[in-house]
Amino acid sequence: MDNQKRQQQNLKQQQQQIRSNSSSRINRNLLERNRRIQMNTLLSKLFSLVPQRQQCSVCESVDQATSYITKIEEKIKKLRERKEVILKGDHDDHNEKFEPVVINVKSSESTLEVSIISGLKKFFFLHQVISVLVEEGAEVVNITYHNAGGRVFHTIYSKPIYTRIGIETSRVHERLKELIS
Questions:
Q1: Residue 44: which CATH number?
Q2: Any alpha helices (H) in the chain, and if so which ranges?
Q3: Which of 5, 33, 50, 79 makes a 20 to 30 Å CA pair with 103?
Q4: Where is this gene product found (predicted)?
């Protein structure tokens, strides 16, 4: 009888062990499946935030995302440094600090063209230039700019709000000189 009881207890223990093994295996499978779902969700969120150049494998896409994030971090660092320089008002490059800003105002019957050429470290607020033009009776139509050879070229095209009155180019030129100098 004792032998039979032991066998029954052993059998029960084995059945419990099998149940616990199978339930732990099921739990592991569920955990792994949830982990995969979470990883796929996070990857799709990452790829939606990063511009993808072409269809490629997940590893290549993660590599592209990593390099994109690194470039963005470098750009942010440079912009913060530039912001500090602007806020301090201290420019290390003395030559560029004293480099004159060139302002050219041309007028025709229906347009006014303002060209401003400055150094990279000579800052002015474009909205203030636009405000001067609006105050003088101009409506800004187009603005272009580009960097070349350490200089920034701004060109602002505008037209008079009241064509009969027109725009006094000499006054605009003087006000812009005062603003930017």
A1: 4.10.280.10
A2: 2-49, 58-88, 94-97, 126-135, 169-180
A3: 79
A4: Nucleus
Which of 122, 114, 119, 123 is closest to 156 using CA atoms? Answer: 114
Q: Which of 61, 87, 113 is the last residue of a domain?
A: 87
How many structural domains compose the chain? 2
The sign of the dihedral angle between the CA atoms of 118, 121, 122, 126 is positive
Degrees to nearest 5, angle at CA 140 with 147 and 137: 130
Comparison of pLDDT for 86 and 95, the residue scoring more: 86
Q: Model confidence over 14-63: pLDDT tens digits?
A: 666 666 666 777 777 888 888 899 988 888 888 888 877 677 888 888 88
Strand, coil or helix: 118: strand
